[in-house]
Design goal:
wza like fold, alpha+beta, 3-stranded antiparallel sheet, 202 residues, 5-stranded mixed sheet, 26% strand, 2 domains, single chain, Outer membrane lipoprotein wza fold like
């Protein structure tokens, strides 16, 4: 009897530990989901750097030059020895090559790596009756449905059938209707987003 009771107690303790681990895993998933999305964007080799992005420039064995730098509104970054370097409009690889060429005047065989650590130049905006309105990084191939999901869904007052994407086209603001239910049901195509788009949820 005593052995059976001990087994029951141990089973309960192990089960509780399992549930605790599951809860911890879920919590970790929530914290890392945003980081994973950002990582997916910054890992895009074809991504063109833009103003307000944050870059990590690493020069092998040159700790005084290696640093994190923001891209200024004029599209340039500042680095020791080189002063201003054009970054906007280039990929990370192209910028690394340009920095390498510039440093050859000062350093023997420089090895440069550039990583985009924060994407701030390509954003979309979600406003209106959503749980978390605001600006969001425009991830590769991001759609209106994904942007609404990023904003944690609708409030109780939202009208999902009357959503629209506001886009600047040739100097004019154009509305693109977006019926959330129709998209989810496969009756309407999702809308691929462009930098600066605003999703309005009435």
């Amino acid at each position: 009897m005593r052995a059976a009771a001990l087994c029951v107690v141990m089973g309960a303790v192990l089960a509780a530990g399992g549930f605790g681990a599951q809860d911890a895993a879920k919590s970790t998933d929530k914290r890392t989901s945003g980081n994973a999305a950002q990582a997916a964007a910054t890992a895009d080799a074809g991504y063109k750097i833009g103003p307000q992005d944050v870059l990590r420039v690493d020069v092998w064995k040159e700790t005084e030059i290696s640093r994190s730098v923001p891209v200024r509104p004029d599209g340039k970054i500042s680095l020791p020895l080189l002063n201003d370097v054009q970054a906007s409009g280039l990929t990370a690889m192209e910028l690394a090559n340009n920095i390498t060429d510039g440093l050859k005047k000062f350093i023997n065989n420089p090895q440069v790596t550039v990583t985009v650590t924060e994407i701030n130049s390509r954003r979309v905006y979600v406003t209106g009756e959503v749980t978390r309105p605001g600006a969001y990084p425009l991830l590769p191939n991001m759609t209106a449905l994904q942007a609404v999901t990023s904003a944690s869904g609708f409030t109780q007052f939202a009208n999902p059938k009357k959503i629209y994407v506001l886009r600047n086209e040739n100097g004019k603001q154009v509305k693109h209707p977006f019926n959330y239910k129709a998209v989810v049901d496969g009756k309407q195509d999702d809308i691929p987003l462009q930098p600066g788009d605003t999703i309005v949820v009435p």
